[in-house]
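Worked example 4.2. Below are the chains of a multi-component assembly; read each line carefully before continuing.
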Amino acid sequence: MDIPFLYQTLLKLLIGVPLTLQLAVSSVGLGAILAVMLALARLSGLRLLAWPASFYVFIFRSTPLLVQIFLIYHGLGQFHAVRASFLWPLLREPYWCALIALTLNTAAYSCEIVRGALLSVPSGQIEAARACGMSNFTLHRRIVFPLALRHALPGYGNEFILMIKSTALASIITLMEVTGLAAQLISESFRAIEILIVAAAIYLSMNFIVTRLVQWVEYALSAELRPPPAATSGQGGTV
Amino acid sequence: MTASNFVLGFGEAGWGTALLQAAMMTLAVALTGYAFGLLVGSFCAWAKIKGGTLPRLIADAYTTVLRGIPDILVIYLFYFGSSAVLTPLAGLFGISGFVSLPGFMAGALAIGLVSGAYQAEIMRGAYRAVSPGEIEAAIAAGMSRLTMFRRIIAPLVLRHALPGLGNVWQLVLKESALVSVTGLVEILRQAQIGAGSTGQPFTFFFAAAVLYLAISSFSTWLLRQAEERLALGARRA
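Applying the procedure described above to all two chains together yields the following structure tokens:
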């Protein structure tokens, strides 16, 4: 065990952590917006909206993320119209291509999480809200979305961990996040095993922290499902 | 559009045949990896259910670590890591330069190790779904442990595990695209080669996406058939 070398490697790889987290957080955040729209489209009951949304989900879930990244980064430049358009300054940057591909990809997976969560809202709650005279918008804002958020959270935690792992693919289009730096170090030093173990440890600790964070949010959002603190000692086992 | 139809054709200048061969390679590496994963996964599930403290600890560490790190790192580990071991070894035999596991082997091993971690969890869950009454009845009927496993446990576990195992297969299929980094000529690598030599990247990566879509849709159909067949005689609520 060459501890100084491992320490040096750790310091060098940690430089990539902000980029990894930035890619993961922004793609999951932007993907969530897209996912809610897709899920609402699928549940709208209008075939004109539901069918394209289902098709989108099917396409993006059945093809490898790496193919999607290559299609956007290498593929789009084939068309003159794209190269001439105002979007080209964005689409020729590997960072934006990776972000777009990751966002579109996670939106397809998250759409299913959101759809399941929306479907899990008890119809009694919705009926009660309607009976109170809530408008459709108020109903969603105050009843459906808060309840669905709680159901979606465990699934969303998994999706976030998957996305942290997926950002490693951005290294293949030259982004220098943790995996990109690791690959560069390997080609410089040829000490692949040690470097990869350090990189793996970094990903594991990031995912561990995310798991804990999600658990904490879940706990914080389910306050009324827990017995009140005073009652726990007094009433013992009754839940 | 005629130009792009031409490069994907099956004629002399077309890449159709090459891409279909590459699809076979994708299937081969994915299936090999998946089978290896089944082996590792069943062994791990057994360790988690019936093993002592040490096997269970090892199995837990394995499934936690392999599900928590990017797949590409595992592929790099086998590809570059094996060269760190093999290159000095080859040097002893007078072979100089970069020596590594062949891309196929490194890819299949990596896919197997990653998918094994998921498969272990699925099989463990499926085993727990087998009702104790069935096992008690088998014991009461005087079955030996092997007969009980073959006739009662295995079919029931398979029925419960199949949807999950099907999901892992879809994961494995998509993961196999990552093996392209080792230079193995599967769908994505072949598409890269085609894109490079014709200057039509979109056409080739689009064709690659369509091939993956076709394989995955066909697997979905096949898995649904298998699920229905295994669920024969199962009561639905």
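Take a moment to check your reading of the output against the notes. Chain A has a mean pLDDT of 91. Chain A has one domain: 11-219.
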